[in-house]
């Protein structure tokens, strides 16, 4: 192990191995022994992993277990055809518009970024790999919810207080349903200042062979750089999402990795 990433990955694997074994949730001393580091290093690295919810501490037995982000990333990585097919399409969006582009999947009531291509011109918090953002006030989140009725949105977001987000974010499920009705007709979400001030998120749903929404392709543009390009940006994001559906299905067919009925 020569890098911090290597050590962190080894520590995460050690937590999982111990959790699945007879000893149960491991403590710092056990983990330090397993990965060959001192307890101070292990303690610091566990805090970093806990900050991004890759591990969490059970305070009753004072041991560690894998956290919700571990399972969310594992679930997202399960459809490897989708991730592989998305990369060139995201790069194409960045090359055309010089803005960050990313792929998200739904993780409970958040939008989880599972693939991203950054821009040298600008950055965006949603384009950080592993970012978990509110599903109700982001372009990606709204694209993932386009097929939800107002009643379904109410059940999903029953614990959401609709506080935060940008100045034009929906403040209740009724407003969110109205926003999504417009986006559904257009086939693309244009979330203008709904998450970040002065940023417009363009997001389009990606559907599987059954027609269910499984992901969202997004691109973020600061309003001062958008000018009169909104329609063209929206169209390009929608086309990328549609192309991703075709490419992912084609790769699955070629590799014999098509999902079962």
Automatic annotation (TrEMBL):
Residue ranges of every copy of the IclR-ED domain listed in the record: 69-250
Top-level taxon of origin: Bacteria
Database matches in SMART domains: HTH_ICLR (SM00346)
UniProt cross-references to Pfam families, sorted A to Z: HTH_IclR, IclR_C
Keyword Nuclease found: no
Stretches assigned to the HTH iclR-type domain: 2-68
Keywords attached to this entry: DNA-binding, Transcription, Transcription regulation
Gene Ontology MF term list: DNA binding; DNA-binding transcription factor activity
Transcription regulation is among the record's keywords: yes
A Gene Ontology BP annotation from the UniProt entry: negative regulation of DNA-templated transcription
PANTHER family, A to Z: HELIX-TURN-HELIX TRANSCRIPTIONAL REGULATOR, ICLR FAMILY, HTH-TYPE TRANSCRIPTIONAL REPRESSOR ALLR
Protein name: IclR family transcriptional regulator
Gene source species: Streptomyces kasugaensis
Phylogenetic lineage: Bacteria, Bacillati, Actinomycetota, Actinomycetes, Kitasatosporales
